[in-house]
Amino acid sequence: MAWIFLGIAALFEITFAMSMKYSEGFTRLAPTLVTAVAVILGITFLTLAMKTLPVSVAYPIWTGVGTLGTVLLGYLLLGEQMTAMKLISIFAIVAGVAGLKISTL
After folding, report:
1. Within 10 A of 41 (CB to CB), how many other CB atoms are there?
2. Range of 74's domain?
3. pTM metric for this prediction
């Protein structure tokens, strides 16, 4: 169940980052509210995951998956550039997340 909580927490991490961008510096009400709710729920589910998972695994995976999702959505939804360095960095994050997951087996 901890891994499911961690996955849900990561989705809220991505939602938080994207809605913060759409809030335009917290000047738009709806995206600002989404940001606040996503932060609270993301941390809540991360905390639930860390009841079982070590912090040295849960937190880096949460931030790593959040980073991956945000980079990909920035590219797909916001027209941000996908450079060679971003692709190499994405590969490094995926490798790190996989290594952390394997370390708990």
Report:
1. 17
2. 2-103
3. 0.86
